[in-house]
Design a protein that fits this description.
By secondary structure, the chain is α/β, with parallel strands linked by helices. It folds into two domains: 139 residues, D-Maltodextrin-Binding Protein, domain 2, CATH 3.40.190; 103 residues, Periplasmic binding protein-like II (D-Maltodextrin-Binding Protein, domain 2, 3-Layer(aba) Sandwich). Helices cover 46% and strands 20% of the residues. The termini are far apart.
Length: 256
């Protein structure tokens, strides 16, 4: 072998070793996932299950879908976006900022209260009528302009003819997680929220909730962000959400 050949071979081996070390370093860094507020609690369990299976750590940022979408458009360094709607992931894909989105969950709107006087109500509409009869008490709702669960709740109010009567009592939250917090803290007597947030296994507070069947299921899509240096790992997590262990966790939080 010539000296030049040996030198070139040594450089190739060095380059392959360097690329391998970069892959390992990328895998060692946590995945950064932008997570819609309704999905925060199941995301904790899903992340633990994923890390146990793959040894890949996951770091979540939880906010409203609209806020996260704006951050991603402005270059926020997320690897994966788990939205609470279809629209924003589809827009990111159309803008060349994300891989093709996939549906990872379908969630349900619920009305939640810790007010025991309301818990005797048979339905969510009955609960709102009781509030109206008392002429007191506010109702929480996530901002319909930025939060899909808020938009679905507002649509249900309009479809049932309750919007005009309820709108003066509405207290708007930045996202559905904050709307749930209003209800849990008693800031409002009832709040529209995601069913997943009403299934808090650690809460010791007495509370009640009613499904808002008039609200359409909220179809939630996820997408891998194009500027992510860990796109394959992000895709691995997105694929994991369709496995049997993940589906069991999702079902326990009321997702379809």
């Amino acid at each position: 072998m010539t000296d030049n050949f040996l030198h070139t071979r040594a450089l190739l081996i060095l380059l392959l070793a360097l690329l391998s070390s970069l892959d390992i370093a990328a895998a060692a860094e946590p995945l950064t996932v932008a997570v819609a507020a309704n999905f925060g609690r199941p995301m904790q369990e899903l992340s633990r299950a994923f890390t146990a299976e793959t040894a890949i750590q996951v770091r979540s940022t939880i906010a409203s879908t609209g806020t996260l979408y704006a951050q991603i458009r402005n270059g926020a360094p997320y690897d994966l976006f788990l939205a609470a709607d279809e629209e924003r992931p589809d827009l990111l894909h159309q803008q060349g900022l994300a891989r093709k989105p996939v549906v990872y969950a379908r969630g349900q709107v619920a009305l939640f209260s810790r007010d025991q006087a309301l818990c005797a109500a048979a339905t969510w509409q009955d609960a709102l009528h009781r509030l109206e009869d008392n002429k007191q008490g506010k109702i929480g709702i996530a901002n319909p302009q930025t939060a899909p669960y808020g938009a679905a709740a507002a649509a249900a109010l309009r479809a049932t003819g309750l919007w005009e009567r309820a709108k003066a009592r509405l207290v708007y939250a930045g996202n559905v997680g904050q709307a749930q917090q209003y209800g849990s803290m008693g800031t409002v007597r009832a709040t529209f929220t995601a069913r997943s947030l009403t299934l808090d296994r650690q809460s010791s507070q007495p509370n009640c909730s009613w499904p808002v069947s008039e609200a359409s299921l909220v179809v939630q899509k996820g997408c891998v962000i194009s500027h992510s240096p860990r796109q394959d790992l992000a895709q691995t997590f997105l694929d994991f959400l369709h496995t049997e262990p993940a589906l069991t966790i999702l079902g326990s939080y009321g997702y379809h």
